[in-house]
Amino acid sequence: MGLEYLKITLLGTGTSQGVPVIGCKCDVCTSEDLKDNRLRTSILIETICGSVVIDTGPDFRTQMLREDVQSLDAIVYTHEHKDHVAGMDDVRAFNQIQHCALEVWANKDVEKALRRDFFYAFGNEKHGGLPQVNINSLGLEEENNGFYINKSKWTLLPVKHAQMDVYGFRVGDFAYITDVNFIPDSTYNKLAGVRVLVISALRKERHPSHFSLDEVLQVVERIKPEATYLTHLSHFIGKHEDLQAELPEGVFVGWDGCVIDNLNKSNK
Ligand SMILES: [Zn+2]
Ligand SMILES: [Zn+2]
After folding, report:
1. Radius of gyration of the chain from Cα atoms?
2. Distance, CA 251 to ligand 1 centroid (Å)?
3. Relative to the alpha carbon of 26, which ligand is closest?
4. Rounded to the nearest whole angstrom, what is the distance from the C-alpha of residue 124 to the centroid of ligand 1?
């Protein structure tokens, strides 16, 4: 499967507004700990089959520059909320470097949102100033059989975000699920044997469309990965350092720039 090498970089670990929140003077938003600065949630997955980004939020450009990403093989999308799609326009840089459209994998609802929000990219006019993407549809067939990006196999992990259908993804023994408040049994079955999990945990209080921290910890108990990293965090969840001190063994607060290399924890 070409997964002898698997490196994950957390590009952003913040909820939809990011942290700090504009105008907020709370302890978290004014913290001097750089780990309390959270761009919108996204990850980079690198295998010998190439580099793939999951979601292109409003901070996509900043994240690509910070991690010095030189090429991208594909973008896969979890769902169509703005904090996960807003940065798609900036694929132009990769179009120019790679001289081709970028391969995108998305369900029907995400495709609809991309065609609406970036309508200018899907017209008859084609020139270097426009983002170019080639959309590959994800649906029932891929839910049943998975799909391949170059030669690496991706397994879809359908979950719910209130009424919205969201895809998590499994590559080898790594799984990524963000923006979720329900995981069906059929998806739990696909998570068997996962060694490293990145999952969203918005805050401690209950929320209508996101798991709260205690709900995520129950999910972790059921999946039992060796290591879990929390992402999509709001300023309400507290400071990185304080939150880390409260978490059980094997559960880590994610942070922007955190690298998980060959599925081993790295504190680079
Ligand atoms: Zn989100
Ligand atoms: Zn704040």
Report:
1. 18
2. 21
3. 2
4. 31
* 78 alpha carbon, closest ligand: 1
* Nearest bound ligand to the CA of residue 83: 1
Residue 179 backbone zone (phi > 0: left; psi -120 to 50: alpha; other: beta): left
Contacts of 244 (CB under 8 A, 6+ apart): 252, 253
- Ion ligand 2: protein residues whose beta carbon lies under 5 Å: 21, 24, 26, 29, 235
Distance 36 CA to ligand 1 centre (A): 17
Tokens of 9: 């970089």
Specify the pTM.
0.94
Provide the residue-wise pLDDT of the chain in tens; the chain has 268 residues.
Answer: 446 689 999 999 999 999 999 999 999 999 999 999 999 999 999 998 899 999 999 999 999 999 999 999 999 999 999 999 999 999 999 999 999 999 999 999 999 999 999 999 998 887 778 999 999 999 999 999 999 999 899 999 999 988 999 999 999 999 999 999 999 999 999 999 999 999 999 898 888 888 999 999 999 999 999 999 999 999 999 999 999 999 999 999 999 999 998 664 444 3
Any idea how long the chain is?
268
- Closest-lying ligand to the alpha carbon of 235? 2
Output 242-251 pairs: Cβ under 8 A, ≥24 positions apart.
Answer: 247/217, 248/217, 248/220, 250/220, 250/225, 250/226, 251/217, 251/220, 251/227
Domains annotated on the chain, with CATH? 6-265 (3.60.15.10)
In angstroms, what is the span from residue 238 Cα to ligand 2's centroid? 9
